[in-house]
Amino acid sequence: MELTQNRQVLSALHKTAELTQPDEIVWIDGSEAQLDALRALAVESGDLIPLNEEKLPGCYLARSNPNDVARVEDRTFICSRTREEAGPTNNWMDPDEMRGILHGILAGSMRGRTMYVIPYSMGPVGSEFAKYGIELTDSVYVVLNMAIMTRVGKDVLDAMGDSADFIFGVHAMCELDPEKRYIVHFPEENRIVSVNSNYGGNVLQGKKCFSLRIASVLGRNEGWLAEHMLILGIQNPQGEIRYVTGAFPSACGKTNLAMLIPPEGYRKNGWKCWTVGDDIAWLRPGKDGRLWAVNPENGFFGVAPGTSEKSNPNALASTSRDTIFTNVVLNEDDRTVWWEGMTKTPPEGRLVNWKGEPWDGSDGTKGAHPNSRFTAPARNCPCISPEFESGTAVPISAIIFGGRRAKTAPLVYQSRDWAHGVFVGATMASETTAAAVGAVGVVRRDPMAMRPFCGYNMADYWQHWLDMEQVLPNAPKIFNVNWFRTDEEGHFLWPGFGDNLRVLEWILKRCFDEADADVTPIGFVPKPEDINLDGTDVTRDTLREILSLDAASWRENCAGIREYFEQFGERLPASLRADLEALEAAFAE
Ligand code: OXD
Ligand code: MN
């Protein structure tokens, strides 16, 4: 039975069914009974392996096709009307040409299969900030993951009513053929198509496809920002909670910062941190001229390896129930899971690696895929903010950009003003780690951590950021952090993790005019005495070193920025060009 009378939804659905020819169409109503039945179906088909009901209640393990384990940026397309609208950092194809290719792939692709209709909401259903989507998929795995990551079901359709204001998406697994894998966005039509993949970042369309690529375009048209950012509430001993957002490229500890546990001394004094979001923030100007943030998601799609009781106990606790693990190690003896970094050594027992093969780690291979994931409900997180479910946004005091730089960026600095903050975000970069294939220490430019997620020309996106200042008389202050400065031997100089709160404390003091700073060519840098080091073994001299600027590194950085900016030609906003020139002049030999 159709769960809505919405003509646009029905017409798009019928057209897709005619093309893909599923045997059956099932509407996802959001009931536990239906989700339970789908879990049972997935267990029966072997798509999900049920885990230990006592130790991991409601949890399942999934294994993906080994050729389908990550986002595929080279097969992700922004099919705007013109190539210029997509810009030099996106793959583009003429929308008609792409439609033709997809038509060929989708034709008859669901024959013998069931097509699930997932009505989903990004943001609490009915809240002023919510936006709605429909994803048609032939994957039960996608249904069950979307039911964790978003709000799904009939109440979404009821909230949509007759409105044509929704994002429509189709996902077909097809043969999981990497050569025919396409993740496609049609921003002018609010449409998404993913084919030949079943990996979360490609096919859980509410996440990167809708909430970042399509939403970034909606944000430009409607006057707001869709960002690849965590949202964190920091409660001080006076009980005031101040909120920050943070954008970091991968492998920079974004989820750890989103779930930060204050150092012991801070905890004793009454500091607490609250997670509002770990990956995506929708940011809108409020009537008060401040910037207000919501997390449109309902769960965490986190990288498992490295998550431990030590590195991120809140993330680990989030996975203790009702979680789907993908591509981790299974312990067949007690049907629990494991991944590299959870404990120093693998547990005792009959272990099976992410490919389903017997494994004990003795051959030097990894048991879990480096990009293995947990899909966990946000409500499981011990430090989830009460604002998460409230459907109201939180006011942002500071926007924090960051990256992994061994030498260049100091521990923290503040931009001179909003426009300079946009320059700081636009020139974000991170050095590659051994965790990814390829050379180590190579600088990769990732503006606002949005390089793979901006749904239009990056230069226009920067201009949109610059324009936002007009509607933000009380704009957040913009900062850059770098937890990864090293000494000559490559040892980290800053302890990171919970101690990062010491830096956040300075950031918030700056936002409320409670701390001084040194004026430098890159912006405001803390006075070494203004960062609280009590309870760490970091010395003032070390701190002085992490706050220092090395002119040669900055000259090299400027050259990298200039080269990166060149690809945007005349579209590059003038203020970014001017900020670069000023920086070059300041560090000229
Ligand atoms: C993610 C990503 O999965 O940024 O969040 O790739
Ligand atoms: Mn992300």
Can I get a quick summary?
The chain has 589 residues and is α+β, with helices and mostly antiparallel strands.
Structural notes for this entry:
The chain has 589 residues and is of the alpha+beta class. It has three domains: 7-30 and 71-222, Phosphoenolpyruvate Carboxykinase, domain 1, CATH 3.40.449.10; 227-295 and 388-586, Phosphoenolpyruvate Carboxykinase, domain 3 (Alpha-Beta Complex), CATH 3.90.228.20; 299-380, Phosphoenolpyruvate Carboxykinase, domain 2 (Beta Complex). Helix content is 28%, strand content 22%. It is built from 17 helices and 29 strands. Strands 11, 12, 13, 14, 15, 16, 23, 24 and 27 form a nine-stranded mixed sheet that branches. Strands 1, 4, 5, 6, 7, 8, 9 and 10 form an eight-stranded mixed sheet that branches. A hairpin with an 8-residue loop joins strand 5 (114-122) and strand 6. Helix 16 (551-566) packs antiparallel against helix 17. The radius of gyration is 24 Å and the shape is globular. The structure holds oxalic acid and manganese (II) ion. Manganese (II) ion binds next to loops.
